[in-house]
């Protein structure tokens, strides 16, 4: 029987880390440990041993090799905007932060690619693309703080998936450090490469459990022209789906989102934004398209009027300027930040688009039956079948009791997910919060293969242990 690895004294680990990254890039103060040892979730308290801030792939490699030699665990840290606990360091791990690996280089206007270090902020890449007459289309509320490495590690989706897909669709190449400390350069920006397994895609969505992404070659595309949005009020969720089918069949939409009246009320009260129109409606659809010419505008208005005549739409507004477009989008994009003050219990679930109305109704009926006093906030990406269920904590209920109650009802929610052959995590990842529910979306055989893949890339189990599965 193999003997258990010898535990290394923390002082030795800290001394060796300091020798790799420098004394100024090793932090052990409580403020840094607390801020960099967590993500946006509040279910676990951070307790890392230290935070290191490497500046090169070689320094990252040295840290990983040290982890294997001295038997300590590593948790990667990007913008810390995750919602699954994937970046939480709660058990004395060493956090590897990519805050100082934030450079953009090697822009290629012919291939429309650019090389980003893992710590590049999403919005920085979007701005860089715009300055060069191009577009990086993966977008979400946390674009101003999330980092490219974290986006890739969670395969971030957001609000433009309907037209442009997930993060994995824009990763042309990766430089990674495996859990064993090997540096791999994967795909090298090639559009066509069928020379064996595409290891690059294994690291997309792996949540740092196989290794650390240090650099990514990102694909860019042309800028969209004159993006225009409708916000339409509807009576019921079935009407939203009819709207989606009608517009999607006749126009190329760039986004199709929805949110509830409860969500709108909270955003308006929190942000000072105006309601889109005077009418109060149970649900709202936000759809976006490129208004390339007057003909497209007329077609959009004709579809709107037809939907009103069918009784699917109660009221609506179409953006007439960039500023109005931004404000209409804020009604949807500001929801997460607004409701954070209620310590929401979040479920990020999905099914195929055609099943969404029955799916949502089944989940809502379950939660209302179990906890009629809990307020539910719905929003999501109808265009890709992704719903965000947010249960708000009552002011008079302790956080621990609240999460315990929500955890119990989650079993019923995930049984519904399983019945509808959906996913318990559409875009936020599994992390700590969803790992006990992974079996509702993945077979035992799939999970066993995942474990074997992790063993190949991370033989000593130093990379983000306890995330996705134990």
Automatic annotation (TrEMBL):
Domain FAD-binding PCMH-type: 44-223
Gene3D superfamilies named among the record's database cross-references: 3.30.465.10, 3.30.70.2190, 3.30.70.2740, Uridine Diphospho-n-acetylenolpyruvylglucosamine Reductase, domain 2, Vanillyl-alcohol Oxidase, Chain A, domain 4
Enzyme class, broadest EC rank: oxidoreductase
EC code(s) of this entry: 1.1.99.39
Entry cofactors: FAD
Reaction catalysed by this enzyme: (R)-2-hydroxyglutarate + A = 2-oxoglutarate + AH2
Keywords noted in UniProt: FAD, Flavoprotein, Metal-binding, Oxidoreductase, Zinc
Subunit composition and interactions: Homodimer.
Homology family: Belongs to the FAD-binding oxidoreductase/transferase type 4 family.
Name this protein carries in UniProt: D-2-hydroxyglutarate dehydrogenase
């Amino acid at each position: 029987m193999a003997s258990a690895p010898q535990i290394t004294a923390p002082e030795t680990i800290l001394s060796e880390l300091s020798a790799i990254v420098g004394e100024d890039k090793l932090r052990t103060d409580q403020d840094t440990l607390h801020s960099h040892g967590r993500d946006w979730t509040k279910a676990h308290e951070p307790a890392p041993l230290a935070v290191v801030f490497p500046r090169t792939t070689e320094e990252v490699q040295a840290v990983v090799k040290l982890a294997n030699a001295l038997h300590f665990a590593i948790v990667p840290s990007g913008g810390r905007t995750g919602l699954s606990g994937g970046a939480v360091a709660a058990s004395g791990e060493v956090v590897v932060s990519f805050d100082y690996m934030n450079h953009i280089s090697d822009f290629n206007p012919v291939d429309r690619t650019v090389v980003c270090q893992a710590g590049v902020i999403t919005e920085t890449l979007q701005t860089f693309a715009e300055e060069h007459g191009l577009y990086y289309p993966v977008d979400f509320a946390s674009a101003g703080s999330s980092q490219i490495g974290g986006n890739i590690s969670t395969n971030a989706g957001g609000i433009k998936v309907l037209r442009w897909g997930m993060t994995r669709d824009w990763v042309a190449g990766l430089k990674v450090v495996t859990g064993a400390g090997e540096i791999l350069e994967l795909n090298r920006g090639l559009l066509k490469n069928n020379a064996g397994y595409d290891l690059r895609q294994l690291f997309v969505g792996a949540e740092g459990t196989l290794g650390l992404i240090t650099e990514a070659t990102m694909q860019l595309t042309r800028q969209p022209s004159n993006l225009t949005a409708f916000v339409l009020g509807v009576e019921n969720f079935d009407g939203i789906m009819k709207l989606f089918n009608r517009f999607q069949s006749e126009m190329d939409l760039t986004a199709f989102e929805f949110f509830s009246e409860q969500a709108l009320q909270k955003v308006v009260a929190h942000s000072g934004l105006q309601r889109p129109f005077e009418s109060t409606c149970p649900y709202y659809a936000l759809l976006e398209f490129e208004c390339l010419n007057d003909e497209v505008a007329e077609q959009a208005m004709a579809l709107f009027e037809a939907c009103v005549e069918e009784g699917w739409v109660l009221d609506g507004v179409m953006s007439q300027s960039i500023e109005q477009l931004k404000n209409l989008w804020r009604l949807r994009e500001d929801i997460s930040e607004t409701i954070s003050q209620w310590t929401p219990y979040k479920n990020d679930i999905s099914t195929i688009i055609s099943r969404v109305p029955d799916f949502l109704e089944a989940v809502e009926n379950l939660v209302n039956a179990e906890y009629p006093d809990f307020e539910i906030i719905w929003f999501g990406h109808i265009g890709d079948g992704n719903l965000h269920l947010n249960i708000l904590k009552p002011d008079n209920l302790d956080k621990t009791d609240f999460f315990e109650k929500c955890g119990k009802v989650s079993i019923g929610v995930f049984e519904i997910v399983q019945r509808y052959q959906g996913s318990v995590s559409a875009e936020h990842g599994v992390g700590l919060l969803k790992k006990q529910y992974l079996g509702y979306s993945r077979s035992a055989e799939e999970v066993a293969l995942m474990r074997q893949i992790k063993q190949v890339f991370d033989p000593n189990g130093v990379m983000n242990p306890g995330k996705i599965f134990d």
